[in-house]
Design brief:
Blueprint: H1 5-14, H2 21-43, E1 52-56, E2 62-64, H3 65-78, E3 84-89, E4 96-97, E5 107-115, E6 126-134, H4 144-147, E7 156-162, E8 166-171, E9 176-182, E10 187-192, E11 203-205, H5 216-227, E12 238-239, H6 245-255, E13 258-261, E14 274-275, H7 276-289, E15 293-295, E16 312-313, E17 315-318, H8 320-332
Parallel strand pairs: 3-5, 11-12, 11-13
Antiparallel strand pairs: 1-2, 3-4, 5-6, 6-7, 7-8, 8-9, 9-10, 13-17, 14-16, 15-17
The structure holds 2,5-anhydro-1,6-di-O-phosphono-D-glucitol and manganese (II) ion (2 copies).
Length: 333
């Protein structure tokens, strides 16, 4: 019988001594929350979960009903277990400290409760992204500063994609494992281990409508790809853009590719659109654990020292040779 997520985690704890029991239990709770979100997503119009909530988050984005529902599900599932000190989310201005009525743990959980919000109402894949950090030992009372750790300090990271299948993708620093939700059993079943991203690719993902706002290195790189077989790359490239980072990254992990959401001139004071701590960091660690590469165009994303919870970053990740090429083009500019 195929192994369940629970068994995978027990083995990571017991045989491989990779994670402590509290982290295993915390990840079980995150997976349970994702299951609940998956059911809500599945009901769609029947569950009254589609459409706008007519509110804005701290980043000035209009919230969808599901953004708020997914955020609440994650908080309610995680606040009482005793494994966490605090949580942070795309949908909350500041950190959520575990209330005093519950026991406190040593971990910090960050999430993008619902990634790809523009796809909710049109029945296209969306997801949840999460990242787990350890609370610094010296810190008594948990604060936002405790969260500001570089991505290489993550102790677990993953996402759940709500698509034709509900798929949970996880790393605890021992490669990447993929679990598929078996709805009859109600459990995540291990369907792929040691995921590897091909080092080369003929597929890129970028929102081409922003082309006129790009910086030179990005424009040059995409121009090379578009030139195809007759151009400097000597091969034809295909393009995909789902507008849900989870779904785009899931394709990359499955068959390779390069994903870019670069800085552009629309809002030059912002380093990019995607958020470092709960989008770029967990995805970058997964990509690296699968043998890929992730940079902001110049440096390794996992080495960036965050200064703000909701800080943004330029993102280039995926197949190693392609990301190395984009990065070299930036460094030479
Ligand atoms: P979110 O729904 O959590 O705000 O994230 C959406 C992100 C990301 O998932 C996706 O890659 C990107 O925004 C799409 O942006 P464009 O609509 O600008 O293409
Ligand atoms: Mn997102
Ligand atoms: Mn989101």
């Amino acid at each position: 019988m195929a192994a369940s997520l629970s068994r995978y985690l027990v083995e990571q704890q017991r045989a491989r001594n990779h994670i402590p029991p509290e982290l295993r239990l915390l990840l079980e709770v995150v997976a349970r929350a994702c299951k609940r979100i998956s059911h809500a997503v599945n009901k769609g119009a029947l569950g009254g979960v589609l459409g706008s909530a007519h509110s804005e988050n701290v980043q000035g984005e209009v919230q969808k009903k599901l953004d708020i529902i997914a955020n609440e599900v994650l908080i309610e599932a995680n606040e009482w277990g005793g494994y966490l000190a605090a949580m942070a989310s795309e949908e909350m201005d500041s950190i959520y400290v575990v209330p005093n009525r519950y026991p406190k743990g040593e971990y910090l959980l960050l999430f993008d409760p619902l990634d790809g919000s523009s796809n909710i109402d049109v029945n296209v894949s969306i997801g949840t992204i999460f990242s787990v950090l350890k609370k610094p030992e010296h810190s008594q009372k948990v604060s936002e500063a405790d969260f500001l750790q570089p991505g290489h300090a993550q102790v677990a990271a993953g996402y759940c994609v709500y698509g034709p299948q509900t798929t949970l993708v996880l790393t605890v620093g021992d490669g990447v494992a993929i679990f598929t939700l078996d709805r009859e059993q109600g459990s995540f079943v291990l369907t792929q281990e040691n995921v590897r991203i091909p080092e080369d690719t003929r597929e890129f993902a970028i929102n081409m409508s922003n082309m006129r706002h790009w910086d030179k290195p990005v424009a040059n790189y995409i121009a090379e790809c578009l030139a195809g077989r007759e151009g400097p790359r000597g091969k034809d490239f295909n393009m995909r853009w789902i507008a849900s980072m989870v779904a785009d990254v899931h394709r990359l992990l499955t068959r390779g590719g390069v994903f870019l959401y670069p800085w552009d001139k629309r809002e030059p004071e912002k380093p990019g659109k995607l958020r470092l701590m709960y989008e770029a960091n967990p995805m970058s660690w997964l990509i690296e654990q699968a043998g890929g590469m992730a940079t902001d165009g110049r440096e390794r994303i996992l080495d960036i020292q965050p200064t703000q919870l909701h800080q943004r970053v330029s993102v280039c990740l995926g197949s190693k040779n392609e990301v190395a090429r984009v990065t070299a083009m930036h460094q030479a500019a």
